[in-house]
Specification:
CATH architecture of the largest domain in chain B: Up-down Bundle
Largest sheet of chain A: 9 strands, mixed
Order of helices and strands of chain A: EEEHEHEHEHEEEEHEH
Number of domains of chain B: 3
Order of helices and strands of chain B: HHHHHEEEEEEEHEEHHHH
Structural class of chain B: alpha+beta
Number of strands of chain B: 9
Oligomer: heterodimer
Shape of chain A: globular
Strand order of the largest sheet of chain A: 9-8-7-10-6-1-4-5-11
């Protein structure tokens, strides 16, 4: 079986996000970039399956040159090959644009299973699994926490509100990995040294038959117009509790008059 | 909160992508696997042996060896591993130092093919643990005075003597033991003594106040018979053990920076959040700033010292006195940082809720092991004057 794992190289979840000068992007200075944690579950499951059943694992991303570091990290964990669709100089695109690029690349890759995290932790849109599947006319199953392989098919457990759903899908299909699917491995030092020798295939949108003009600028279905940080949290109001009776009265008054919840 | 590194001088730009990847891997491992348990381990005086298979899976043992399927890292990458491990705990770093630099290095460098084939893979996988026996109860800085002797008897050697302050001693499957081979005036040779060999016993040093998450033992040899094929064939004389110590000390010069980074970042975070007088953080006080400025300056100087030392080691131009300078300086830096951090934290500097006191206690061992601070001073003195001060003058 051949697996392709689509990864997103995103700001570390501990990043203190700052808004960029244009008011609609984040300031990337001092941002530490990581492979999106949900994508790590996807990669781990693909690696485990390859170890059990043979085949190959290829990682695929869309991004600027810095994303090569993320791809190398995946190679160090054991992926066989890596492909980057270059975003350099492309201009602003949206989820659908990225999905079109990934789908175009995937068409030439003969994957039995296409993996992604259930969502990236960048924009958190959570649409890539279904968009890519739709563009490739493949089944997709998202929020997957358990996988069992059959001949030419796969049984997948997915988290739903208040329970788990068990579905079967033919192959190939697109699988969105969710927290709980597995415990991602660490890379090894040997893996890092082996990854150093591998060549990352870099493709331009035009190489994949996608016209950049069709997925950027005015042609993007979704455009960012404004980005704002959440309002700073207000300081706590402490009620002195020297006299419990008075403190309770004051609390009731505040809940009624100020918070207006009573 | 994950550790984001200490880099005041854009030293990051001097590292290769692989060196950064190696460091980040070990950094992540330390944050996720070591820091959550280490305070308890140190408190209980327990070596977290459960981490050995994980460390082996990461290839932390023998990481610079280019054969036996090992990574063959450069020495800067190796140093960065030591830095991150000791940011976790000096005892954990000591374990890896001993396994790699004091056991795998001499077997790989001076061992026979059979010795290498038997031990290097097992030690790399963590299936075997090693220790290094040089120091004796009465001979520390002057190893040449050692009393442990090996007497040839037929096709084997018979060892008698005692070793002290041996990291991993009681848990080791193989001990690299240095003894005078043939009598008290004979040259020193290395013997691989396996656990369970009749006449070989170990006992732990009790009541240690430092390196509590690491095992430290005495080794005793009483008519302990070792076959000839367990002698390291490739070296004779003190240069054998001393060359191993050069490797280990090189790692310590990086490791100590990790300890210093841990106490510095803890003190910095604390100073920014702790408020006294008009609700201002103590980081706004000049005396606290002076301490932090000292710490970051000394750490930065230490980083540059270690990095250039590593580049020299990779280039084949590093000499033992270069290592002495970095070990001496950087452990001193770590010791000063631990002390200053403990002052900044006030009472919180003595409790296990923060890592400061553990590092403070640990670094006391590091200050005098692997060549005491003072002995390294004398090595440097000899290097610049050409006059050795610590050998009794021959009259």
């Amino acid at each position: 079986m051949n697996h392709v794992v689509c990864i997103a190289y995103v700001p570390d979840t501990e990043t203190k996000v700052k808004i960029g000068g244009d008011g609609k992007s984040i300031d990337e200075t001092d941002v530490k970039w990581i492979v999106s944690p949900y994508d790590e579950y996807a990669l781990e499951e693909a690696l485990k399956t390859r170890e059990a059943k043979g085949g190959t694992v290829t990682v695929l991303t869309f991004g600027p040159a810095r994303a090569d570091v993320g791809l190398r990290e995946c190679l160090a964990r054991g992926a066989d090959e890596a492909v980057r669709i270059a975003s350099d100089g492309l201009g602003e695109t949206d989820s659908l644009g990225v999905a079109q690029l990934l789908a175009a690349a995937l068409k030439g890759m003969k994957a039995d299973a296409i993996w992604m995290g259930s969502k990236g932790v960048g924009t958190d849109a959570g649409v890539m699994v279904s968009m890519v599947a739709e563009l490739l006319d493949l089944p997709n199953v998202n929020l997957v926490t358990k996988v069992e392989w059959k001949d030419g098919a796969v049984t997948l457990w997915r988290e739903v509100e208040g329970g788990r759903e068990v579905v079967e899908s033919p192959l190939p299909c697109v699988i969105g990995a969710h927290k709980g699917l597995n415990e991602p491995r660490y890379a090894s030092l040997k893996g890092i040294m082996a990854a150093k020798k591998k060549v990352i295939a870099v493709k331009k949108p035009a190489d994949l038959g996608v016209d950049p003009a069709g997925i950027t600028g005015e042609k993007a279905a979704v455009r960012w117009t404004k980005l704002e940080l959440p309002p700073a949290r207000q300081a706590c109001k402490l009620i002195p509790a020297d006299d419990p009776q008075k403190a309770a009265e004051e609390l009731l008054r505040l809940l009624r008059d100020e918070a207006k919840v009573l | 909160m994950a550790f984001s590194g200490v880099d005041f001088y854009q030293i990051e730009a001097l590292l290769s992508d692989e060196e950064k990847a190696v460091r980040d891997l070990v950094r992540d491992f330390v944050d996720s696997e070591i820091l959550p348990i280490i305070e308890e381990c140190a408190w209980e005086g327990r070596f977290p042996r459960e981490l050995v298979p994980q460390m082996a899976a990461l290839n932390l043992f023998g990481a610079t060896i280019p054969e036996y399927g090992l990574p063959g890292l450069d020495n800067v990458a190796y140093g960065l591993i030591m830095q991150e491990l000791e940011r976790g705990d000096s005892g954990l770093r000591s374990f890896v130092s001993v396994q790699s630099a004091l056991v795998m290095y001499p077997i790989y460098t001076y061992g026979s093919k059979a010795q290498k084939d038997r031990w290097i893979p097992a030690l790399a996988k963590g299936e075997a643990i090693g220790c290094f026996g040089l120091t004796e109860p009465d001979f520390g800085s002057n190893p040449g005075g050692m009393r442990t002797v090996a007497r040839k008897d037929g096709s084997s050697w018979v060892l008698n003597g005692a070793k002290a302050w041996i990291t991993n001693g009681s848990i080791a499957d193989v001990a690299v033991v240095w003894a005078k081979a043939g009598g008290p005036d004979a040259p020193v040779r290395g013997f691989l003594v396996e656990k369970g060999t009749p006449g070989f016993t170990t006992s732990e040093h009790r009541m240690k106040m430092s390196l509590r998450a690491s095992v430290t033992s005495q080794l005793a040899f009483e008519d302990c018979r070792v076959p000839e094929e367990n002698v390291l064939p490739g070296v004779e004389g003190l240069k054998g053990p001393l060359s191993c110590l050069t490797q280990a000390r090189y790692g310590i010069s990086w490791g100590a920076l990790g300890s210093a980074m841990a106490t510095y970042t803890c003190a910095l975070d604390y100073a920014k959040s702790r408020k006294q007088f008009q609700d201002r953080p103590i980081a706004s006080h000049q005396m606290v700033q002076e301490k932090l400025a000292f710490m970051i300056t000394e750490i930065t100087k230490g980083q540059l010292l270690a990095l250039q030392l590593g580049r020299m080691k990779d280039g084949g131009t590093m000499r033992p006195h270069h290592v002495s300078m970095a070990k001496r300086n950087n452990v001193w830096v770590a010791r000063e940082c631990a002390r200053l951090a403990r002052e900044i934290l006030g009472a919180n500097g003595i409790v296990g809720e923060y890592p400061v006191f553990r590092h403070l206690a640990n670094i006391e061992s590091v200050f005098t092991y692997e060549g005491t601070h003072d002995i390294h001073t004398l090595v440097l003195g000899q290097a610049v004057t050409g006059i050795p001060s610590y050998n009794p003058p021959a009259e």
